[in-house]
Write a structure and sequence with these properties.
The chain is of the alpha+beta class. The protein is built from three helices and nine strands, in the order αββββββαβββα.
Length: about 170
């Protein structure tokens, strides 16, 4: 009987560890969805990154939306890919630092264009969210827009998301 109880307990806890879901709740102050960064491209695919912090584990939940298009090779249908990466404490700490830098150093920007990308950063502010949107924030060395930190955050999130394997391209 003890053996059966031990086996059942092991299966329960082992299954719980493997089936762990990210805490992306929007109504917790110190846990849940800490920020969302969406990148909407005029000529490429769209991506969304969500940094979700739980009491025991943190995750980067990412989505890639590939638009349908017609080429000389035929029609490619619209496709969606999802990625969920459990973060080590070092990666979580790096995202925390990049997030804080983006929050502190990115300032409102009203430059817009017809091509390129629009990045919308939605950081948690207490129990609610604010939204800051930028047009093509990847900066050239001579640029004075001050969007280096939001760009660094987005590039790092893309690098750890695993979306490259689905054909995601960051612009």
């Amino acid at each position: 009987m003890k053996t059966l109880l031990l086996v059942i307990t092991y299966i329960f806890f082992a299954g719980k560890a493997f089936a762990e879901e990210p805490n992306c709740s929007e109504n917790e102050v110190f846990h849940g969805l800490m920020f969302e960064l969406s990148v909407n491209n005029s000529l490429r695919d769209d991506m969304v990154f969500r940094f979700c912090v739980g009491k025991d584990a943190s995750f980067l939940v990412s989505e890639l939306y590939q638009t349908a298009y017609v080429s000389e090779y035929g029609i490619r249908p619209a496709l969606n890919y999802h990625s969920k990466v459990r973060l080590t404490s070092e990666i979580k700490s790096k995202i925390d630092d990049l997030y804080k830098n983006a929050l502190l150093n990115s300032r409102p920007d009203n430059i817009r264009g017809l091509d390129g990308s629009t990045w919308c950063f939605r950081p948690k502010s207490g129990n609610s969210y604010t939204e800051l949107c930028y047009w093509s924030p990847i900066e050239h060395p001579e640029s004075k827009r001050g969007l280096k930190d939001i760009s660094n955050l987005g590039i790092y999130l893309f690098d750890i998301s695993g979306l490259q394997e689905y054909g995601g391209v960051f612009q």
